[in-house]
C-alpha cells in the first residue's frame, strides 16, 4: 500500500493528512505546538490516536519515543557507529530492531527488518513538490508504525542538519 505525505505544512505544531493511493485521507499527523519537546500524534480518520510520538528529554543522542495506548512501542535514534549520518535504528520493546537508511533529507530511504524490506520512502514516484510517498512493501507490516518511524527519522535528520550549521 502506498501513502502520500504532503510536506508543505510539515513541522511539529502543524497538522497534515496522509492519503492512500486512491487520494483518501487515512492518517492525520497532529503536531503539538508550544511544547518543550517535539511531539505529535498519528490519528485515524475518526480522530482516534493510533500512535503518540515525543522526543526523549535528557538523552545523550536525539531520541524519539513511540507509544501506543500509553505504552512504549519503540525508540528511534541515529545509529551510534554508523559511518553514514543517515542511518537510524528503531528498537521495538519486544527486542526487534528495524534499520532505516538512505538519503533521509532527500526523502529517499528504506525501512528494513533483518535485511528484509518493510517500506520505501521516495519522492521519485511523484511530481508534486514537497511531497513524498511511503510504500509499505510487506502486507503484514503496521503502516501506522512505519509512517511514525518515517516522520520521526526525517525530524531527527532535519534537527541534526540544523545542529551542524
SSE pattern, N- to C-terminal: EEEEEEEEEEEEH
Radius of gyration: 15 Å
Largest beta-sheet details: 12 strands, antiparallel, barrel
What is the average per-residue confidence, as pLDDT, rounded to a whole number?
83
CATH superfamily label: LURP1-related
The CATH class designation is Mainly Beta
Q: Helix content range of the residues, please?
A: 10-25%
Amount of beta strand:
over 45%
Q: What global shape is seen? A: globular
Straight-line distance between termini? 37 Å
Class from helix and strand fractions: mainly beta
Oligomer: single chain
Give the count of structural domains. 1
The beta-strand count equals: 12
Protein name: LURP-one-related/scramblase family protein
Family: Belongs to the LOR family.
Pfam families: LOR
Write the layout of secondary structure elements.
Blueprint: E1 2-6, E2 15-20, E3 25-31, E4 39-44, E5 49-55, E6 63-68, E7 71-78, E8 87-92, E9 97-103, E10 108-113, E11 116-122, E12 131-136, H1 143-164
Protein name: LURP-one-related/scramblase family protein
Pfam families: LOR
Family: Belongs to the LOR family.
